[in-house]
Specification:
Blueprint (H helix, E strand, L loop, with lengths): L3 E3 L2 E3 L1 H5 L11 E5 L4 H12 L3 E6 L4 H10 L3 E6 L5 H15 L4 E4 L15 H29 L2 E6 L13 H21 L4 E8 L5 H7 L8 H10 L9 H12 L10 E4 L7
Helix pairs in contact: 2-3, 2-9, 4-5, 5-6
The protein binds nicotinamide-adenine-dinucleotide.
Amino acid sequence: MERLLLHGGVVSPESRLTMKTDDELRTRVCLVTGAARGIGKATAEVLGAAGAKVVVADISELGAQTAEGIRAAGGQAVFIQGDVSTAEGAANIVASAVAEFGVLDSLINNAGILRLAPSFEHTTIEQLHDLMQINFESVFHMSKAALPALEKSGRGSIVNTASMVGFRIGMPSHAIYGASKAAVVGLSMTMAIELAPRGVRVNCVAPGVVATDLFAEEFLKSNSSKDLESGGKETLAAIPLGNYARPEQVAEVIAFLAGSASDYVTGQTIVIDGGFTGI
Ligand SMILES: NC(=O)c1ccc[n+]([C@@H]2O[C@H](COP(=O)([O-])OP(=O)(O)OC[C@H]3O[C@@H](n4cnc5c(N)ncnc54)[C@H](O)[C@@H]3O)[C@@H](O)[C@H]2O)c1
């Protein structure tokens, strides 16, 4: 029988075939935070369509609609309402998820907010605290709470939503937002090293401009000297692929990192920006 050399050992062609991972997501329980709308909702839907059991977590009761939509399309999903930015809230969400499905294989830390200021020195300390708590501390709390279950899974995967801002570029009005996302990337890199021997991978996505309510509500407002339309046009012109990302274009990359299709990838941040920061 044909044998393949692998790190001094051997694997058979049959076992190589078991590495085909397209269907692996259907065996996973995936928890997606901030899944009431936007990128989180799209991620929950992509995972649900792939057959994963999905836990939709959000502070907003609209998360119930995401879960309903997945079930209506033939998938499996539950909604758990809670606040990911506190240790107690995170622990409750994870406990409810594990109570529901018994296991947890993938944690997608996507919930986040954008608070803009004319420039960094005009940022209030309240804005700074909100951004750090919701964008960064949430990742710490949720990951800590989920770790026992992810480790038990034996194929645990954490995917954190960072941003091109704070990872590749700075952007006016986004000083503390960028700092909060830089903190997410920094935390993820060390978590990836510490958790690799325990069978848990940790990666980030760094989206560019994604057409979501968050973008519409906050990002275009930051172009204070322009109206919404012209501010938007200028941003579009900076994107080589010529359009804002659709939430599902980010969701597909998150799903890849959440499942075993990416089982040799850890400690990475994948930029999904249509070429905006192309270098
Ligand atoms: N939209 C973009 O252009 C863009 C770009 C880069 C990164 N991101 C990041 O992607 C993620 C999703 O962004 P989006 O555009 O879909 O935003 P969104 O505002 O449309 O969705 C965010 C979701 O998070 C939830 N949420 C907020 N605080 C929460 C809390 N404390 N506990 C639980 N849920 C909470 C909200 O209720 C909402 O449903 C965020 O982390 C954001 O920073 C977005």
